[in-house]
Structure formats: structure tokens, C-alpha cells
């Protein structure tokens, strides 16, 4: 087997375009004004007889940015011309963070009444109900067929697929209703043994339930079985934490006359 190594030739430096610093500066000053142009920072060979000269930018608010002036020389010509002038960020420049689409920036709790958040037609979390049904783990084939038929006639067009369920489970498990929440770490026991845990149906029921304790922070929310809080149904106070018993009642036999005598 014969292997070959491909080498890419770098463009040669052209002395005329490299030396055209004054030409590049003059064109830059004419374009943006002398007050915004700083020292010459060097040059970059872009191609054959094409060089970009870099100048410091002194414009307020653009610390670390550079003026880029590209010059070129035609073949067999002695004249160097200016191709373009642009402002580019340097290594120490302050630049805006990468743009994130609005749909990806929305977090739980951002929606207000009346806001609409459409779901993409090809959302990987959802699949057609007639292909997947509501509970792929249901061992009763007839029950599965009935659920699919109901959705086809009256119910939903799409339902959660495996990817959507996995994403939801991971999000819930890593969130405030999971085992790593601060309140769960100090809990006396897990939700799996709490009488206020309401079971749910489907594959997610193997790991999650709903809290029904009106005194708990997670009331009405999804919690993992290994989550927990201080409002567990079986929690009991230790004797040292119980309130002290009231004092023994004393029957007061003093009369008004006796009180006057004592005073």
C-alpha cells in the first residue's frame, strides 16, 4: 500500500504589498478618520500578492479591535490597490456572545398568559400516536390497540416517543424534584415510602410520582422516588425536639382579703 502526503504550498510574501503600510493607513484614515486609527500591528499574507495590514482601533467602545485593510497587486503591475477595509475583533476584543435562537433561550417559567410556543413538526421528542401509542410497555396488546384507536378518533395526534421520555426523565431527575436537591439531601426518608406520593401511569411511573402533601414544597409536582423532604408522612420528632410539656396546674386558693394582707 502506497501512501502519499499532500502538502499545501503557502503563498509567497510580496514585497510591494507588504511595504504598502502608508497606502493602507491613508485609505483607512480617509474612510474612518485619523482619531480612530492607531499603530500598525503587522500584516497577514492572504494569497499571492494579497496582504492584509492590521491597525489598532482607537474608537471608544472597541477595545482590542483592529482595522483590517487588504491590499493587492495585479500580476506584472507595480501599483498596489486597496481592496477592502473592515473592523475585526482581536484576541483581546470584547465581542457579543454567540447568537442563540429565541426558541432555544426559552426556559421553564418564561411563558406569560397568551404566549404561544409552537412545537416543530419534526420534534424528535414526539412521534405519531398511531405508530407508538401511549404506553409501549403495556403487555396487553388489546389495551394498546384501544388506546391507539382512541387517539386516532378523538385524542392526540402525537405522543411522547422514547427520546422525549428520556429527556423528560433526565430533566426531572436532575431538577428540584430529584435526589440531589438540597432539601432531599437533608430529608429523613425518600418519597418512595411517603404516604403522600401519588402514582402515575406509563413508563415514567417506574421512577417518578406526584407529591400530594399540601404542606410540602413539592405539592402537585413530579418527584423521583429517591427524592425527599421534611414533610414525609412517617417523619417523627425525637423526644429532644418535642415541645416541653405544660406545667402541672395549680389551684389558687388565695382570696382577695389574703392578697391585701400579703401586699
UniProtKB/TrEMBL annotation:
Entries under InterPro entries matching the protein: DUF3027
Pfam families attached here?
DUF3027 (PF11228)
- Superkingdom of source: Bacteria
- Listed name of the protein: DUF3027 domain-containing protein
UniProt source species = Nocardioides conyzicola
